[in-house]
Automatic annotation (TrEMBL):
Protein name, per record: Glutamine ABC transporter ATP-binding protein
InterPro entries cross-referenced by the UniProt entry: AAA+_ATPase (IPR003593), ABC_ATPase_HisP-typ (IPR030679), ABC_transporter-like_ATP-bd (IPR003439), ABC_transporter-like_CS (IPR017871), MetN_ABC_transporter-like (IPR050086), P-loop_NTPase (IPR027417)
Keywords associated with the record: Amino-acid transport, ATP-binding, Cell membrane, Membrane, Nucleotide-binding, Transport
Main location (coarse class): membrane
Topological type in the membrane: Peripheral membrane protein
CDD domains the UniProt entry points to: ABC_HisP_GlnQ
Length: 239
């Protein structure tokens, strides 16, 4: 589905990550964990071309992404959910979810509304259609953001610490929605420190630190018996 070869990103002369070789198969769920500053967010942002890599290659569905690639089309197919929701405050839940299909896909408004209502119901927000973000809880806002990503019918979804900004009692409702998306077969890359989610959902865990992939493997093995001191130290800090 997506693959990187020697992907490297620097801001000026400061390296964020170097020579990342990463691959996700269709339908696979990959969890990325690692300390703050490891380069996880920047890496995800490179995958859907919100950020340009300094060097290296990205292949999407087998095709190299080049300056000629239609990046808008790529971003349509790769949905992203952010830590801080990034909803438009002046739009209702329904309008937030309709916006992509109407503006980007030029979809008929009535059809976009039906699709948006459908996805908002799927994330358990059928009763919040006309609420503004400020009238919603953190968990509800994040579920609107997930519905918004789903409404574009992406082929791949990237989640960047989707529960890190939430009060503890709202984390599970968001993880439950993500679990359902996973069960429906979506290809997913999830940056999260929710270890029980990773154990239950991930096919593979990647441990990123200091701008590189330090360990990679089966989630149960990684969390039960990490192979490197760096990973052990990190896991002690989050468990
Ligand atoms: P993580 O998500 O793992 O915490 P990030 O990808 O957010 O890591 O950041 C990795 C490093 O890149 C950090 O040191 C951060 O300060 C730096 N960084 C991120 N974005 C920028 C930017 N736009 N300009 C300069 N440095 C940045
Ligand atoms: Mg981050």
């Amino acid at each position: 589905m997506i693959k990187t070869v020697n992907l490297t990103k620097r801001f000026g002369s400061v390296p964020v990550f170097e020579n990342i070789n990463f691959e996700v198969q269709k339908g696979e769920k990959v969890v990325i964990v690692g300390p703050s500053g490891a380069g996880k967010s920047t890496f995800l942002r490179c995958l859907n071309a919100l950020e340009l890599p300094t060097s290296g290659e990205i292949y999407y569905e087998g095709r190299l992404i080049t300056p000629k690639t239609n990046l808008n089309k790529l971003r349509e197919e790769i949905g992203m959910v952010f830590q801080h929701f990034n909803l438009f405050p002046h739009l209702t839940a329904l309008q937030n979810v309709m916006l992509g299909p109407v503006v980007v896909k030029k979809m008929d408004k009535n059809l976009a509304r039906d699709i948006a209502v459908n996805y908002l119901k799927k994330v358990g927000l059928g009763h919040r259609l006309n609420h503004y973000p400020k009238e919603l809880s953190g968990g509800e806002k994040q579920r609107v953001a997930i519905a918004r990503a789903l409404a574009m019918e992406p082929k791949l979804m990237l989640f960047d610490e989707p529960t890190s900004a939430l009060d503890i009692e709202m984390i599970q409702e968001v993880l439950d929605v993500m679990k359902e998306i996973a069960e429906n077969g979506m290809t997913m890359v999830v940056v999260t420190h929710e270890i029980s989610f990773a154990k239950e959902v991930a096919d593979r865990v990647i441990f990123m630190a200091d701008g590189r992939i330090v360990e990679e493997g089966n989630p149960l093995e990684f969390f039960e018996s990490p192979q490197t001191d760096r990973a052990r130290k990190f896991l002690r800090s989050v468990l």
